[in-house]
Amino acid sequence: MSGPRPGALPTSTGAEAARTARRLLGGHRRALAVSAAAFTVAGLAGLVAPLVLGRIVDLAESGGTTSSLVVAAALIAVAAVVGAVATTVAVTWLARAGEPALAELREEVLDRALHLDAGRLEEAGAGDLLSRVGDDVRLVQESLRDAVPTLMTSVVAIVFTGAGLFALDWRLGLAGLGAVPAYVWALRWYLPQSGPRYRAEREANGERAEALVVGVHASGTLRAHGLAADHQRRVEAASWRAASVGIDVVGLFTRFGNRTNRAELVGLLLVLVVGFLGVRADAVTVGEVTAAALLFHRLFNPVGAVVFLFDEVQSAGASLTRLVGLAEMPRPAAPAPRAVADASLRLRGVGHSYREGRPVLVAVDADVAPGERVAVVGATGAGKTTLAAIAAGHLRPTTGTVELGGVPLDAAQADGRLPVAVVTQEVHTYAGTVRDNLTLAAPDADDARLVAVLDAVGARGWVEALPDGLDTVVGDGAHPLTPAQAQHLALARVPLADPLVVVLDEATAEAGSAGARDLERAAAYATRGRTTLTVAHRLTQAAAADRVWVMADGRVVESGTHADLVAAGGTYADLWAAWSRR
Ligand SMILES: Nc1ncnc2c1ncn2[C@@H]1O[C@H](COP(=O)(O)OP(=O)(O)OP(=O)(O)O)[C@@H](O)[C@H]1O
């Protein structure tokens, strides 16, 4: 079995997961206490039927009356009702403690996931993260809903039934205990193998999800580079590994089932043999032996459930360690917020390598004055997107610093205003109304403000033409927006958020040439008066900017106005000439 992939997100130890579970459950002590009391009542109620049945056997032997039989039957019925009510109360109150605790953990996990450094996320892979916030949360939740209550009910039944056996007669109790070594032997065989196997199963599923996510997201690129077959082999290998680990787990569990069946047989035989000898020696009654055999038989289901659910709870435990591992990842120390002096951007010695020894940005020194609009141009792979992501604070540079208004970007505070807003080509439409998609950026904006901004960015016409205007529900499964419309809304969010700095990376690329002009007009409005860095693929954007940076091989090789750079006859002049000839 191989260990986790290098770079995978961390997994906590069992002890750390238990500590986190205790911390989260600690706030719900009252619910846990009610649940524990109800489980106790249910456990006691469960003893009534076997004991009373044993008593009926003795009554039958000694010529009991019909009325005593009726009383016994009534007792069994009352105990069944009490047991059912107590179990319902116990399970309900357990959920009242468990569900909020899990919700808190989910929030912590999501919060940590959302604050993962882009580089770290890249290293770990989106699939690993998705399988944690998806599969692992679901597994823990299902286990909390189904497995944990049944496990608790079973453990309580086992404890009370064991005590009941001893209460009947200590020899019968000891006979029942005779099954314990057989169970222990089965568990000692099973446990050391099962934990690592469940962990391997979770990891294999995570790797399979990662391979599938990459395959779906990057299908175009993989095909374009002739890597589709390679990637398909990677998906096949990951799927096969997940399947074979799954088969391995089922095989192990089946063999464990055989061993527990043997333990049940040993225990029941011991109770019957000891009971037989006890009756012969007049030490116990036939009724007591009947009750003991019924009690012991009653253990089969709870013990089976514990064994069966142990599997599930252990698997959920493995998921919990993955959730806790992520939630408790050390957070980079957040610098104390400092007020910015103005809206200038200053990059000093900024370098970046996605892979060690392969720098894609090299010691970039560059400044953007407050309110200045800079367009970044250059060949594919020159480092434009990387520079934009660093200037936006989305990517931590390997070397160098980025300052906004004289303050490190991650500490910048601008009187409650958003320091930097980013619009890239990959725009997400959030599930909700068009209004929701806009007020994300300005929760207090009223419809008049939204309509004014939509008007200013040139989106009012098509928004009002939607079936319900601002109230139209968009996003997955609702009214579909074209990529250009989604981009238009993203650009409208910029003036609503009112940031000091705007970073646009191919933010107007999502359209044909007519649509591109609309988006360019929207971008011009969104960035008016703001410090702006635009990764420009159409050189008309560069021509309209205050200044142009030309990038090549991770460096800013030219910087100046469009006119100056064209006149200088360098790289930009060549690019412009090629663009103008199109
Ligand atoms: N996440 C990543 N992991 C590894 N390498 C990357 C990553 N992103 C970009 N690169 C590499 O870094 C270099 C610079 O990429 P970047 O996207 O910044 O260039 P660009 O000028 O924006 O290119 P384009 O115009 O094609 O978007 C390229 O060689 C690219 O392959």
Automatic annotation (TrEMBL):
Pfam families assigned: ABC_membrane, ABC_tran
Sequence intervals crossing the membrane: 31-57, 69-95, 148-168, 174-191, 265-283
MF terms (GO), sorted A to Z: ATP binding
Start and end residues of each ABC transporter domain: 345-578
Topology of this chain in the membrane: Multi-pass membrane protein
Domain ABC transmembrane type-1 residue range list: 33-315
Subcellular location field: Cell membrane
Domain of life (superkingdom): Bacteria
Coiled-coil positions: none
Transmembrane helix among keywords: yes
Keywords for this protein: ATP-binding, Membrane, Nucleotide-binding, Transmembrane, Transmembrane helix
CDD domains the UniProt entry points to: ABC_6TM_exporters (cd07346)
Main location: membrane
Entry protein name: ABC transporter ATP-binding protein
Organism: Nocardioides lentus
